[in-house]
Amino acid sequence: PTNSLSLSLSLSLSSSSLSHRIQRLKPTTEQSHFTTPKKKKKTFNLYFLLNPTLCKKISVCSIPISLHVISLSFSLSPQKMDVWSPSVAMDDEFEKLLIRMNPPRVTVDNASSRKATLIKVDSANKHGSLLEVVQVLTDLDLITRRAYISSDGEWFMDVFHVTDQNGNKLSEDDVADRIQQSLGPRSRGSFRSLRRSVGLVQSADENTTIELTGRDRPGLLSEVFAVLADLKCNVAAAEVWTHNSRMASVVYITDEATGAPIDDPDRLGKIKQLLLYVLKGDRDRRSANTAVSVGSTHKDRRLHQMMYADRDYDVEEDVEEENGNRPLVTVENCLEKGYTVVNLRCGDRPKLLFDTVCTLTDMQYVVYHATIIAEGPEAYQEYYIRHIDGSPISSEAERQRVINCLEAAIKRRTSEGIRLELCCEDRVGLLSDVTRIFRENGLAVSRAEVTTRGDQAVNAFYVTDASGHPSVKTETIEAVRKEIGLAVLRVKEEAYSSSPPAQEHGKFSLGNLFRTRSEKFLYNLGLIKSCT
């Protein structure tokens, strides 16, 4: 009928293999050959790839289908345009349909390289896919030595050269399964807008999560843990970052008496009020707002989001980095292909790839191609990016903001100070006592990692002097160790140096370094040409 929805299904056959892509055409006013040409209608076309296994079971006129495209066309008359409209729900269903018909293919190759295990990922592309893969590798404590990333339309192909923390090839068998699970259909609950200041979210598992942001100062962490101890809250785990005079922390707490999550609204309100009072201090008004968090996000990603929302990347132009400790980041446009090329060079460390990819993703940039090299003390990264709307960086202000944000993302986790490792039997108030001793001896905590394994507390603190300088007198460290316990508090030498790469004269351009490597790789795939 003319005034109703008309739906048709056709199979496109081809003797040659079709490209792994989806084309979603914009609505047109052209007349569809599937409808009666009495009234002008909007025509929509959707093309998507059939699962090869499903195609093998289908035949048309005795012609087997190996890899083909289903084309759906449907028309809507002007009077019935409200029958179909773009929505988040429809986008989600389309995304789930796509992923089910084109599940990610992950292979783990231990034979091609003597030094590393190759993890190859092919999957339908979506915003955030690269971050999800990198996040899984990071959560498995894998070190990425090299990576080659490329996407063609709606399909992406990644190759990661990884080792374990000791530089050995992998022996686990579940890496591929975990990556495939991470790329499965997802809800949009994990990508809510940024939340501010002090937030509380009830964990679905065992803890209540507290998010804190505020001005960093000596003794702040001690005051936070003291408040939680006074309110009968046990800290099961926590992560604390500081950068550019700002502090962000995610703390997981339980009730001291029951060990269960805290869900009493009045009690949560009191916790928020007292923590907010501590964070504001005498002069800080930037952390005066509070919000209750909804949903959950990966801890490290959430910390990046919190610091970004707190604008820790804002740096005065006349402020010089001490000892040249600033990462080298360049951002240039590749006019021929419509990309923005981001080159990055800094000292290598664990989770560096996650930090940069996370920042680009949350800034709404899409990584189309990339080359990562981190086989020595320095790391080199090159990204071909566009904004999520398909456009490259178009202004000097935006270019400078990308540079500042990437520099901040790298430095948030850069280890400054002496690493002290605390391993002992866990007890209520342990963190309050330890951080109080740090404060009384003139030490400030620049970063902290707090975990609980069974009945054991396994914590790491990076401490500086009260002024933030990483050089701390040996006598001070030994005095702290004696007070806490020489057997439970140890000084740990970092395996990864946080020292910056040697400065070079002249203009830095990482693109020249990658030209023969990344472009050769991408050129062989037929994806790009030289940007020169």
Can you describe this structure?
The chain is globular, with a radius of gyration of 27 Å. The strands form 4 sheets. Strands 7-8-10-9-17-18-16-15 form an 8-stranded antiparallel sheet, with helices on both faces. The model is unreliable at 1-86, 186-197, 288-292, 495-518 and 523-532 (pLDDT under 50). It has helices spanning 52-56, 88-101, 129-139, 175-182, 220-230, 265-280, 299-309, 352-362, 396-412, 430-440, 474-484, 510-514, 518-524; strands at 6-12, 23-24, 42-49, 59-60, 63-64, 69-76, 105-109, 117-124, 143-152, 155-163, 199-202, 208-215, 233-243, 246-255, 328-334, 339-347, 365-373, 378-387, 418-425, 443-453, 456-465, 489-492. The protein contains 13 helices and 22 strands. 26% of the residues lie in helices and 30% in strands. Helix 3 (129-139) runs antiparallel to helix 4 (175-182), helix 3 runs antiparallel to helix 8 (352-362) and helix 7 (299-309) crosses helix 8 (352-362). 35% of the residues are buried. The protein has 4 domains: 6-87, no CATH class; 105-185, Alpha-Beta Plaits, CATH 3.30.70; 193-290 and 415-492, ACT domain (Alpha-Beta Plaits); 322-414 and 502-524, ACT domain (Alpha-Beta Plaits), CATH 3.30.70. It has 532 residues and is an alpha+beta fold. A hairpin with a 2-residue loop joins strand 20 (443-453) and strand 21. Binds amino acids. Residues 118-199, 209-286, 419-494 form the ACT domain. This is ACT domain-containing protein ACR. Keywords: Repeat. GO terms for molecular function: amino acid binding.
Question: Keywords, please?
Answer:
ACR1-12; ACT-like_dom_sf; globular; Alpha-Beta Plaits; repeat; 4 domains; 8-stranded antiparallel β-sheet; disordered N terminus; 26% helix; ACT domain-containing protein ACR; alpha+beta
